[in-house]
Predict the 3D structure of the following.
Amino acid sequence: MSINELISNMEEASLPRTNGELVFRSPWEARSFGIAVALNAGGLYDWKDFTANLVAEISSAGDYDEEDYYEKWLSALEQIVLDQGLLSKAEFVERLALFSQQEHPGHSH
């Protein structure tokens, strides 16, 4: 299955769109989306399991704001990665720190 076919089959994830196009407010959102799609396309987890995690994250938010969508997406991705044993919690935290540094390359805070 191609990446485009995979994305078109993600209806249950209610991806943020404008005029039919995916919307990402910042680079980390696009990267977290790409990582989730790539891991699924690689057969490392079932999309239904990821979607169940995403729905649980959004449902638990209570006062959910659509602008928080990719924060929930990233939490669902963390859960599936840990559940499938793809990374340990420590490895995930380490990779997330590197991922966050890429948000502002060349900057140190």
In short: The chain has five helices and two strands.
